[in-house]
Amino acid sequence: ENPFRKRIVEVFSSQPDGSLSFEDFLDMMNVFSQNAPKSVKVSYAFKIYRRY
């Protein structure tokens, strides 16, 4: 299991209960896409790893 799974969901979730909507899922996939700008990837990397 990915140790960052919960944190990734927290970062991308727009729901108060921490669940992912389909739009949240698409946003997450867009950030992890090869076509995403490097600046977006770096921004989310810092958001994800900020707690660790």
UniProtKB/TrEMBL annotation:
Please list the GO terms describing molecular function.
calcium ion binding; magnesium ion binding
InterPro entries (UniProt xref): CIBP, EF-hand-dom_pair
Keyword Metal-binding present in the record's keywords: the answer is yes
Instruction: List the residue ranges forming a coiled coil, or say none.
Output: none
Gene3D superfamilies assigned to the protein according to its UniProt record, in alphabetical order: EF-hand
Entry keyword set: Metal-binding, Repeat
Q: Which domain of life is it from?
A: Eukaryota
Q: Which PANTHER family match?
A: CALCIUM AND INTEGRIN BINDING FAMILY MEMBER 1 (PTHR45791:SF1), CALCIUM AND INTEGRIN BINDING FAMILY MEMBER 2 (PTHR45791)
**What's the protein called, per UniProt?**
EF-hand domain-containing protein
Q: Tell me what organism the protein belongs to.
A: Rotaria magnacalcarata
